[in-house]
Amino acid sequence: MLLSRTLLKRHTVLPGFDLALGFALLYLSLVVLIPLSAAFFKTFTLTWPQFLEATTTPRVLASYRLTFGASFGAALLNGFFGLITAWVLVRYDFPGKRLVDALVDLPFALPTAVAGIALTALWASNGWIGQWLPFKVSFTPVGVWVALVFIGLPFVVRTVQPVLEDLNRELEEAAATLGASRWQTFAQVILPIVLPAWLTGFALAFARALGEYGSVIFIAGNMPMISEITPLLIITKLEQYDYAGATALAVVMLVVSFGLLLGINGLQAWARKRQGGM
Amino acid sequence: MNTLVLPQVAPNVAGVAPRAIRSATTEPAWVRRLLIGAALAFMTLFLFVPLAIVFVEAFKKGVGVYLAAISDPDALSAIRLTLIATGISVPLNLVFGVAAAWAITKFDFRGKQVLLTLIDLPFSVSPVIAGLIYVLVFGLQGWCGEWLRDHDLKIIFAVPGIVLATLFVTFPFIARELIPLMQAQGIEQEEAARVLGANGWQMFRRVTLPNIQWALLYGVILCNARAMGEFGAVSVVSGHIRGQTNTIPLHIEIAYNEYQFAAAFAVASLLAGLALVTLVAKYAVEQRLKREETHHEH
Fold first, then answer.
1. Does the pLDDT at position A63 exceed 60?
2. B200 contact residues in A (CB cutoff 8 A)
3. Which of B95, B132, B191 to mutate to test the interface with A (most CBs of A within 10 A)?
4. Of A10, A231, B20, B132, which sees the most CB atoms within 10 A?
């Protein structure tokens, strides 16, 4: 009763608002909000210099460089091939297209541990792919990048695809009539329309890669300073009973993720506006 | 009946060979082939081959080794625990998803946008951190640690911790599938049911549920796949006690780290099979939803 009286903006004949919202808020608090707040409260037990020290040791800084660098590199490759894949799936016909379309989501459905051992076996120096390469991939930072490419693959495809499907062909016809080459039409008409969705997909892939653990730890080799990602460092600290240190690192990652989440929400609002304006 | 042949390209204008005419909104054939080739090569390298190697490695040492690996007592107890954790977390998130979607899509209230953002929150939290926060609450040094110890209750390094971690990482799935669909469906049908005298339960069961059943199923499928496959969060809270707190993904990790590759890939192939079933079911439900959408429009 209290909820409906204070929050509802207008009268309604539909039932269940108090029950539904009340349960949703209770469940959200118990499962997500209260446990998450524990990370911040635990960090407050550290003084500011202690916090800085825990989050900026050389080993931690090396893990940031690897985590952010490999995530960015993986999102870039996915951005490039994701756009091509979305384009090909929307515009062209080829044998096996429906199968390819359905399998794009595989990284969402395949457990990360399974992906981890499969990629490690493939890219190891005696593996199906690794044996043809002049350099090592498994157990190096390149391996981290390979795993992050895999888990970020669906994002750009799945954000760009619906925009391309809804794209008004008349725009392209108009551009062609006005004398634009096919490349000019793509670069100056299609690309600007797709850009917000592409950026959203890129940011989603990047954000997902930052927190990834399961697929990376098998292929990374996990050498401190070289191929150790930040989530693994959190676990290492936890196993040494350094709860405050582990939590300090977690808070750094949480703040970055929340920032990205806000950015992505902004991008999505922009994308909707762009599309609505078409 | 099939005698009518439609021209594939623009009609042949005075002496220009038909193949020289290309629609202004497509690319030359070589560009198309190049792009299709690039997309397929990328997908093959990063999707198809990794999927294939799971099954090849699983059966490399023969069916006997495969069967022995998946019927190993530790493997069986891992499967049992995974089924328990999934069996608890999917229904709970289902109830939450329906409740949250009902409140958000059928009512206009203050703070809706904030609630929407909070529901998505678990997706942007690293699985490792999802495990860590439960250790901070329920672990021996955590908020409830002493109380739990005094009452002889174990959450971390025990089954309840695994269930909680699974709940957290699969939290948004069902709500996220339902909200856009129910938003698009509006409230007229439910209002009509109410005006015609249906009580709340009748309205929900006869009007709302049939409208959302496929999206609901879709959300359950995605939630289930993630619940069975979760690794990072569960790994932090499990304690890796063999035969007791190992789920399927953790069992794979242990077998792999002990160089029992065939056994690791055999158990992994079960999850890869589940992933394929998930994709097929997802595809079928998507087609169904699309058909209903066009059905509604006409």
1. yes
2. 15-16
3. B132
4. B132
pLDDT at B260: 92
B24/A173 touch (CB, cutoff 8 Å), yes or no: yes
pLDDT of residue B167: 96
Residue B248 tokens read as: 């399927």
ipTM of the complex: 0.90
pLDDT band at B4 (very low <50, low <70, confident <90, very high): very low
A113 and B231 within 8 Å at the Cβ level: the answer is: yes
**Number of Cβ within a 10 Å radius of residue A56:** 12
In the prediction, which pLDDT does A1 show? 59
Instruction: Kindly state the helix (H) or strand (E) to which residue B200 belongs, with its residue range.
Output: helix B200-203
Checking if the pLDDT of A57 tops 60, the result is yes
Which two tokens mark A44? 């407050």
pTM (predicted TM-score) = 0.90
**Chain B residues in contact with A12 (beta carbon < 8 A):** 106-107, 187
C-alpha span between A96 and B19 (Å, rounded): 26
Asked if A85's CB is within 8 angstroms of B279's CB, the reply is no
Please tell me if residue B59 touches chain A, with a CB cutoff of 8 Å: no
Q: How do residues A197-215 score in pLDDT, each as one tens digit?
A: 999 999 999 999 999 999 9
For A10-49, b/e burial (b = at least 16 CB within 10 A) is eebebbbbbebbbbbbebbeebbeebbebbeebbeebeee
- Across the interface, whether the CB atoms of A100 and B26 are under 8 A apart is answered no
Mean pLDDT, range B181-204, rounded to an integer: 92
Distance between CA atoms of residues B17 and B39, nearest Å: 32
> B38 at the A interface (CB within 8 A)?
yes
Chain B partners of A100 at a C-beta cutoff of 8 Å? 39-40, 43
- Indicate which of B48, B53, B126 best probes the interface with A, i.e. most A CBs within 10 Å of its own CB: B126
